[in-house]
Each structure stands twice: as structure tokens, then as C-alpha cells.
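Encode chain A's predicted structure.
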Amino acid sequence: MKRISNANIFEAVISRKDAGRRLVDELMGLFGGRAKMVMAHLVESGELTLEDIKEAGKALRKSSGKDKR
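Encoded structure for chain A:
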């Protein structure tokens, strides 16, 4: 924290990306570490679209080295 005149300036301790990862890890823990259950819940709630699933598939193929495009 920095102090300038009467104002306190706060800086993040962790990055937004790291905070997001921690949040997802905690969410997965609530679902017993099972991504399938999380995905099913997101689909049922209308939060997950077909486009989201396609993008996730591309990312999965890329991370596993199977995306030849």
C-alpha cells in the first residue's frame, strides 16, 4: 500500500489470472474434482454455450498436441 496525500493506493498481491485459477480450483473441489459435473451444471443453467464447448475442445486438442491445423 502506498499513501499519496490523503489517499491510500492498494496494489494486487496476485495477478487476475492467478486469482481466476484459484477460483476454478476451488470450484472444482466443490464438485469433487469432476469437470463433467461442473460442465453439466453450466449447461443446465444456460451459462455454457455450444460455442464455449467448441472453444474448449480446440484448447484441449491444442494442449494435448493433437491439433494439426
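The chain has a mean pLDDT of 87.
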